[in-house]
Specification:
Shape: globular
Structural class: mainly alpha
Distance between the termini: 24 Å
Largest sheet: none
Number of strands: 0
Strand content: under 5%
Order of helices and strands: HHHHHH
Radius of gyration: 17 Å
């Protein structure tokens, strides 16, 4: 599905995002900066692209605060309603691209 929305291969995109975070370390709080190394080592961005990876993320996030506990098992809802989420995304994504192009003329999402 990634290739439908980007000419850049997913692995390359993820690697560039990690490099961007490293280059912009001075923009981050010390707490966030400390997490970036772990994020990259464990490839959080890559795991968000799989159902098991999301399940792991939901479990970890749910342990941080009691009000997040209902996230455990959310991957089951995602799987059960995958087509509905896909349809909603396919409708919403062009709007995001249009908005980004309007708000950032000449940016990466603008037409040449």
């Amino acid at each position: 599905m990634w290739s439908e929305y980007s000419k850049v291969p997913l692995r390359k995109f993820i690697a560039e995002m990690y490099r961007t975070l490293e280059r912009r370390d001075d923009w981050l709080t010390p707490e966030v900066s400390a997490i970036i190394g772990r994020m990259q080592k464990e490839n959080w961005l890559g795991t968000y692209g799989t159902i098991p990876g999301l399940a792991l993320t939901f479990r970890r996030v749910s342990q941080r605060r009691a009000f997040l506990a209902p996230l455990v098992g959310a991957e089951d809802d995602l799987t059960s309603h995958y087509q509905s989420f896909t349809t909603a995304f396919q409708s919403f994504y062009p709007e995001v691209i249009s908005f980004a192009a309007r708000e950032n003329p000449g940016g990466a999402l603008s037409s040449p």
